[in-house]
Design a protein that fits this description.
Strand order of the largest sheet: 6-5-4-3-2-1-7-8-9
Distance between the termini: 40 Å
Number of helices: 14
Number of strands: 9
Helix content: 40-55%
Strand content: 5-15%
Radius of gyration: 20 Å
Structural class: alpha/beta
Shape: globular
């Protein structure tokens, strides 16, 4: 499917000399990402729409459902020179998801973002997953991005997994809830295009605590709506979370928790609410089949880059595409290789760990719009 020519955007706004140049770029990039999402519903993309990049595995918390914090210190994270070389030739991403560890512990995060902004002219969204404990760094990075590229949409997911005492226990530190809510409220105070959301991850420790969590957040931020939330379910990964020994959640309790959340979630429809509700409804199908309920888009429209230069289909499937430290080919060529196509086939056909991990589930929902609607409708009875 061909992209909509940029000339249509320029023609529309050419007569209005008050429109700044970055507005042209903003509109063009919006069309690029929309075109890629639509195309991903029909075929494998020629280049990934989204790159998820774990910039560091350093973490200042001790979360009970994740063992990233136990990873030994490693000094061979990607250097700025290596990132410069990669993004110089591999730069057609529309969406960059930055995660960790805790990404705001990355010492040269600002320089890393500068490299991305310098080369990725199509970038329209940048998303940070954070525990919310590094507010001074967050303020610095947001101001820096808004100054460098005012049109870039900046999204945040700030983790909050329970009311104060429970969240602090899950995260292994006494002051985490207070810092996270302060970060969320600060980000909500910023003018667009900054969109913060609370990320509630269902795990063994907080299975029945969503109503209390909702109320605790609302007590501090009365304007809270469901559109301010993402709901995730804890996942297992041998190479990313290092938590394969963690027992699975009890299916009966999990379905009950999902049902309770969906029963509370009665606000108007939005893009976020559609994805959130569809993710939860289809999780009930995943529990029954242990298969991804939609064709996975890992290495079809998305991929995952770890701090050491390894590119994987996602953060769950422990099969590497390449390492960009040693392989200097353009990603477009690697993406078109038989190895990449085979891994993509394995992901889309459940010849993999077959997860329903939020990062990849959301891409699968956007990349299978008709099927996601019909499948979610089948399982909508979980909310009744």
């Amino acid at each position: 499917m061909k992209s909509v020519p940029d000339c249509y955007i320029l023609k529309k706004y050419r007569a209005d000399t008050r429109i700044r140049p970055y507005h042209y770029l903003y509109m063009t990039n919006k069309l690029h990402i929309l075109n890629s999402i639509v195309t991903s519903n029909f075929k494998r993309l020629a280049f990934p729409l989204k790159l998820s990049y774990a910039v560091t595995y350093k973490c200042n918390l001790r979360c009970e459902m994740c063992n990233i914090w136990e990873k030994p210190p490693v000094e061979n994270e990607l250097s700025l020179e290596e990132l410069e070389r990669f993004f110089f030739s591999s730069n057609a991403f529309s969406w960059l998801g930055i995660t960790g560890g805790e990404p705001f512990l990355k010492e040269n995060l600002k320089d890393t973002i500068d490299i991305v902004l310098k080369h990725c002219s199509r970038l329209s969204h940048i998303h940070f997953a954070t525990n919310g404990t590094c507010l001074p760094r967050i303020k610095e990075i947001v101001a820096h991005i808004k100054n460098k590229k005012p049109s870039l949409a900046i999204a945040f997911t700030v983790s909050l997994d329970g009311p104060p005492d429970l969240h602090n226990k899950i995260r292994g530190r006494d002051d985490v809830w207070e810092k996270a809510i302060e970060t969320f409220i600060y980000l909500k105070s910023l003018p667009g295009p900054v969109t913060p959301r609370i990320g509630f991850t269902i795990s063994h420790q907080n299975m029945n605590s969503f109503p209390q969590t909702w109320q605790a957040i609302k007590d501090n931020f009365p304007a809270l709506s469901f559109d301010d939330l993402t709901i995730n379910i804890f996942q297992k990964s041998g190479f990313y979370y290092d938590n394969l020994d963690t027992p699975l959640l009890d299916n009966t309790q999990l379905i009950k928790t999902i049902k309770n959340i969906l029963n509370m979630d009665k606000e108007k429809l939005s893009i976020n609410s559609y994805i959130r509700r569809t993710y939860l409804k289809l999780y009930t199908k995943y529990l029954k089949t242990q298969k991804c309920p939609l064709p996975c888009k890992a290495l079809s429209s998305t991929c995952f880059l770890d701090p050491y230069g390894d590119i994987y289909p996602c953060a769950i499937f422990n099969k590497k595409l390449c390492n960009i430290k040693t392989n200097h080919e353009e990603l477009s060529k690697l993406w078109d290789s038989p190895h990449a196509k085979q891994l993509s086939y394995e992901c889309s056909n459940n010849i993999c760990p077959s997860c329903w991990s939020p990062c990849d589930a959301y891409s699968a929902i956007a990349g299978s719009l008709y099927k996601s609607f019909t499948e979610a409708h089948k399982y909508a009875q979980v909310a009744h």
